[in-house]
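User: Second chain of the day. Same drill as before.
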Amino acid sequence: MSEDISKTINELHIYEKKLLKELEANPEATPEEIADNTGMDIKSVMSAAGSLASKDIIAVDKKVQETYSLTEDGLHYAEEGLPERRILDVLAEKNQIHMKDLASETGIDKKEANIALGWLRRKDWAQIDKGVVNITDFGKEFSDKLGADEKVLDYLKANADGVKLFTDDLVDGFKKLTGRKNILNIKKETSHSFKILPKGEEILKHGFTIQEQATQLTHDQLKEGGWKSLQYRPYDINADAPVFFAGKKHPLRVIIDEIREIFLNMGFSEDKGSYVESAF
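Assistant: Same format as last time:
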């Protein structure tokens, strides 16, 4: 076991050793803190973490936090009302509107009207019969109260800096808004945390030194003998390597061979010579 640990340590990159040492000193260290303390950039920290994780030395936990806010269109709807709400307000007074009069009666453009009609039917606030939009009984109930998605709009408007979580009573409304375009801004923030696994604990218990390793030799080092004092990172020549697949027949060649095999199996014979060519 000790030989395996020593072999693993010898094959660790200097960045992997630095990361392990930082986690030994502070198990709760974030990638940003490790980068600041070691002089590594974030990309190098995460690359080293991924390599250590692939060797079962540490575990990497990834969390994605989403923050939701209103777009310009979303803010407009929060202030002026969703298109279907503006139609419903007029229907509550008139009970019905002819489709050709939607724009003039409600003040919404044709594009918004088409979208609004779909949502009016989906919410069962109105039905269309022979070109006339009629309010439903369910629509009359909602003429003086907000729908679930409208409550979310008000909530996001009141929390302009963004919202990370929604209460249970707002989840349904949030789902409805995510099904509509250009209403919500979704900002994703990814965070990573590390945890030392038993194999990592064993490596730290065994101990190691952090020393710069040569990755390539220069002409001067070879000429002057400086290469003799350098430390080199060992490589496992028995490690798994990517599989390279040999070349394949051209698809047309495969089809020609299949057709040839079919005719030969049917009893035809194949002549060979300078007068018979496979292509022209």
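The first strand starts at residue 58 and ends at 70.

User: Great, on to the next one.
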